[in-house]
Amino acid sequence: MGFRRDFLWGGATAANQCEGGFDEGGRGLANVDVIPTGEDRRAIITGQQKMFSFDNEHFYPAKTAIDMYHHYKEDIALFGEMGFKTYRLSIAWSRIFPKGDEAEPNEEGLQFYENLFKECHKYGIEPLVTITHFDCPMHLVEEYGAWRNRKLIDFYENLCRVIFTRYKGLVKYWLTFNEINMILHAPFLGAGLYFEEGEHAEQVKFQSAHHELVASALATKIAHEVDPNNQVGCMLAAGHYYPYSCKPEDVFKAQQSDRENYFFIDVQARGTYPAYALKELERKGVEIKMEDGDLALLKEHTVDFISFSYYSSRVVSTDPKVNEKTSGNLFASVKNPYLEASEWGWQIDPLGLRITMNSLYDRYQKPLFIVENGLGAVDTPDADGYVADDYRINYLQQHIQAMKDAVDLDGVDLLGYTSWGCIDLVSAGTGEMKKRYGFIYVDRDNEGNGTLKRTKKKSFNWYKQVISSNGEDLTNH
């Protein structure tokens, strides 16, 4: 049994968290560039505080990140050494269309990714490309109000046509929007949405989400037309909700919380707005404006597979006295008394991954792909820059075992696994460098100091062994 022979082992990054080069190669400014570290970050991410350009008071980590723009050959060589079968990365929209609304793309940006994809193939690595990973050109934010404006569907369609055509034969695995449900929790980070005083935020979020869902279906349609070998997935920030008790109200609240996340994937994988979502929108006073053809497009162009991130499970309670919270992937949750937590308060729950996989597979009966999973931790290098990250190995061991159980014992169809931040990068939630996920240590700190030198951690060789044994050897020697 075990994993399929062509199982896609690898790692995942996002352009805005690792690429840097924000003003090189003709690239335009993006929403993710102007999100600083520090206490204002959350208000900006959630669209409550306006920051559309740089100031001198803040530090903006995405400007340089880990400078993969100049280091990608070295980094991909290290991924090749680990034996990666796939590398999940994202395209910076403003590198291809600096403003987002141009008719013609930026050739220098197109060439950069072509070179990068060819570098992957040199090592037998299949690129898995997220078209939009928390990324919207600032011109589209300022000029059109970002995804609240239906015109963004056309601009996104233009981007898709260009990249599907240009990279035909180089890329066959695509994801339309990263963690599409994050539009509800981090609207400026997720979709470039900033809310004006008195604006009906729920109306804006769900209308914008509709535009993204239509754009996603359109991308799926075009991808299949340009190259029948293309496989297109959606992407969910996942993590099953547990009721705090067996009180029926708690159980029902957990079901409702799961549905809030499933809603987008229900549309992308099943092709229709689910009844529970329509009722919920009605209660919120949200009226989604649709155009003729929207529903047919959603129905006819569902995704080929379901990809998701998993870091932790979540807990809900209807009892106001049960209010001790823990943090998570931009979601706060009631603390689970049965689980340990990471240094950032994320609950560690390997069995929760198996539960989440079963829930998704039962619901959609489409192949799954785990495209983010990992442990954010403070790594302390020795004098040579080496990190003995046994805590990370332990976390990944347990999660890969749970994933294996879901495949072996439950029959879940799983295409692959890309651990998050396979090389240290800037955290999306906090903007920190010290919250590290990688198998490769990057010498850079929260303030942007450091040599950017890459050093293999202990987990580097461990993951190499996991890949070469196709997940059979998880031991930490």
TrEMBL record:
<dbReference type="InterPro" id="IPR017853">
    <property type="entry name" value="GH"/>
</dbReference>
<keyword id="KW-0378">Hydrolase</keyword>
<dbReference type="GO" id="GO:0005829">
    <property type="term" value="C:cytosol"/>
</dbReference>
<dbReference type="InterPro" id="IPR033132">
    <property type="entry name" value="GH_1_N_CS"/>
</dbReference>
<dbReference type="Pfam" id="PF00232">
    <property type="entry name" value="Glyco_hydro_1"/>
</dbReference>
<protein>
    <submittedName>
        <fullName>6-phospho-beta-glucosidase</fullName>
    </submittedName>
</protein>
<dbReference type="GO" id="GO:0016052">
    <property type="term" value="P:carbohydrate catabolic process"/>
</dbReference>
<feature type="active site" description="Nucleophile">
    <location>
        <position position="372"/>
    </location>
</feature>
<comment type="similarity">
    <text>Belongs to the glycosyl hydrolase 1 family.</text>
</comment>
<dbReference type="GO" id="GO:0008422">
    <property type="term" value="F:beta-glucosidase activity"/>
</dbReference>
<dbReference type="InterPro" id="IPR001360">
    <property type="entry name" value="Glyco_hydro_1"/>
</dbReference>
<dbReference type="InterPro" id="IPR018120">
    <property type="entry name" value="Glyco_hydro_1_AS"/>
</dbReference>
<keyword id="KW-0326">Glycosidase</keyword>
